[in-house]
Amino acid sequence: MPELLLVASKLSKRFGGLQALSDVSFSICKGDIYGLIGPNGAGKTTLFNVLTSLYVPESGSCNFMGHQLTRLKPHEIAIAGLARTFQNIRLFGALSAIENVMIGRHIRTRAGVFGAITRNQATRAEEAAIEQRAQELLDYVGIGDRANHLASALPYGDQRRLEIARALATEPALLALDEPAAGMNASETVVLRRLIEKIRDDGMTVLLIEHDMKLVMGLCNRVLVLEYGKVLAEGKPAEVQRNPKVIEAYLGAGAATEHSKEAS
Ligand SMILES: Nc1ncnc2c1ncn2[C@@H]1O[C@H](COP(=O)(O)OP(=O)(O)OP(=O)(O)O)[C@@H](O)[C@H]1O
Q1: Of all residues in the chain, what percent are helix, strand and coil, respectively (each to 5)?
Q2: Which of 8, 53, 124, 136 is the right S-S partner for 62, CB 3.0 to 4.6 Å?
Q3: 158 is in which domain, residue-wise?
Q4: ipTM of the modeled complex
Q5: InterPro entries given for it (predicted)?
Q6: Shared domain check, 134 and 178
Q7: Atom of ligand 1 nearest to the CA of 43
Q8: How close is the Cα of 88 to the center of ligand 1, in Å?
Q9: Are 78 and 64 contacting, i.e. CB atoms less than 8 angstroms apart?
């Protein structure tokens, strides 16, 4: 039996009169690349924001390795082992690539603010180790030669990979990626796909929001489909792909019947 890493149960989130999530339940197992798809406005980012405590749900719970995620503060989420990237990249543009990764690393170190001010020998040794690890992570995501470039000056695809390196610096058990391929060209997407597979092969679990259907279906071992904040389908990519409700949600009413006619 695969080990359960995250169990979300009946999560609901409302914005005024809009029910953005209704009783959303799903489970992620260790080693999954778990896809989260759905038409625009389906509630995918809202779900990410609930999981990472940026939003407080009206009801429901989410157990992540023994932590009740909905009770944690946003900064406690990364310490609990869940790191994320954002749909709209959120880097420190005026800092270098390596400095951005070093910031992610600080939650796992001991020096703290006092050490950073006094800069004693132990702190200096720790800073050197943080810098070395940050460089390793830049190498890992494939932008090691751009460590000293300003984050804002990096091409778009590299900024996305830098965000992943910063998230990896927190040593997550679960890495949540919000549309990592957005704005990437076909060859950058291939490189991203290999990177996500490498992350999984190195023992992490990945939760992925993605609009690129080819990427989702080729990469994920399970997929959750949301529509109007509700779970429309959940399962293996091949099952989800031929589910008439999913086809209809993506292609419009009537498409499912057409599709099944074509398939027969
Ligand atoms: N902070 C907010 N305040 C009010 N409404 C919100 C807020 N965040 C999201 N919504 C609404 O909740 C619904 C779900 O939005 P969400 O961004 O989660 O969808 P999504 O599936 O991520 O869409 P997309 O694929 O376009 O990114 C939408 O109708 C959106 O307008």
Answers
A1: 45, 25, 30
A2: 8
A3: 94-169
A4: 0.96
A5: AAA+_ATPase, ABC_AA/LPS_Transport, ABC_transporter-like_ATP-bd, BCA_ABC_TP_C, P-loop_NTPase
A6: no
A7: 18
A8: 14
A9: no
Q: Is 14 helix (H, G, I), strand (E, B) or coil?
A: strand
Q: Is residue 255 situated within a structural domain?
A: no
The CA-atom distances, in angstroms, between 45 and each of 55, 70, 209 are 11, 16, 8
Residue type for 156, please? Answer: Y
Choose one of 109, 137, 169: the last residue of a domain: 169
124-128, 180-184, 218-222: lowest mean pLDDT where? 124-128
162 and 122 share a domain?
A: yes
Asked if residue 247 has pLDDT above 90, the reply is: no
pLDDT of residue 194 exceeding 50: yes
For ligand 1, atom 9, name the residue with the nearest CA. 46
* Number of structural domains found in the chain: 2
Same-domain pairing of 211 and 112: no
Does residue 191 sit in the same domain as residue 63? Answer: yes
Which pLDDT does position 90 carry in this prediction?
Answer: 85
Q: Looking at the whole model, is its pTM more than 0.80? A: yes
Contacts of 73 (CB under 8 A, 6+ apart): 53
224 and 205 co-located in one domain: yes
pLDDT tens for 2-13 read 899 999 999 999
Phi, psi of 80 (to 5 degrees): -70, -15
- Residue 122 domain-assigned? yes
**Mean of pLDDT values over 93-105:** 89
Give mean pLDDT, residues 211-239.
93
Per the domain annotation, does 52 fall within a domain? yes
Would the CB of 178 count as within 6 Å of ligand 1? Answer: no
Atom of ligand 1 nearest to the CA of 38: 21
Domain CATH code at residue 25: 3.40.50.300
